[in-house]
Every structure is written in structure tokens, then in C-alpha cells.
Specification:
Blueprint: H1 2-13, H2 15-27, E1 38-40, E2 44-47, E3 58-61, E4 64-72, E5 75-83, H3 93-105
Antiparallel strand pairs: 1-4, 2-3, 4-5
């Protein structure tokens, strides 16, 4: 599994490949997301949930995360786009990705 994960992360880290994925699935193949406007982001998400007794650090890693800076009526619009690679169907992925998003929102 680690070999597949490493190869897929490297493949999806390419801006053109990453943009193609989102353009195909979200925009029906039209180039809306321009690869040159994608910037890599740190994929590490850290949260410090606590109880009355102690702090407990949680660290999660997304596969690939990028910032897209788009222009809309001369104003900047920023999108955070993330990819979590899977070679098999996993029904808990929405929960896993939701956890990543919730940790990100705490920032």
C-alpha cells in the first residue's frame, strides 16, 4: 500500500494533473482551474482536543492540498482543494475528509 500511496501522491502533486482532475469532475472537462495558479500547501493538520485531565494532540495528513487563487471581478477568490487517494472503495472516507476539514477550520 505504501508504494501505491507514494506514487499516487507524487503524480497528484503535479499542478497540471491536479487541475485536470478537478476540471474533469467538477467542470465537465472545461479548463476553469489553471495549473499555474495552484500553490502547494502543507498537508499536516494538527488539533489539540482536550479533556479535564490532559491535552491530546491529533495529527492527520492529507495526500495533496493546494491553494487556488482565482480572480472574480478584480477581487481575489481563494479555494482550498485537497485530494485523498484511494485504490479501493472506503465508506468512511467522507468522515475522514470531514475530520481534516474540521481540523483546518480550527485554524
Amino acid at each position: 500500500m505504501a508504494d501505491k500511496d507514494t506514487v499516487t501522491k507524487d503524480y497528484m502533486s503535479d499542478n497540471a494533473t491536479f487541475a485536470d482532475l478537478f476540471n474533469f469532475y467538477i467542470y465537465g472537462g472545461h479548463e476553469v482551474i489553471v495549473p499555474e495558479r495552484l500553490k502547494p500547501l502543507d498537508t499536516t493538520e494538527i488539533a489539540l482536543p482536550y479533556s479535564d485531565e490532559h491535552l491530546m494532540a491529533i495529527q492527520k495528513l492529507r495526500d495533496v492540498m493546494k491553494l487556488y487563487a482565482a480572480m472574480s471581478d478584480d477581487k481575489a477568490t481563494y479555494l482550498l482543494l485537497g485530494v485523498e487517494n484511494q485504490s479501493e472503495l472506503h465508506y468512511a472516507m467522507p468522515i475522514k475528509n470531514g475530520l481534516y476539514d474540521m481540523i483546518e477550520y480550527t485554524k
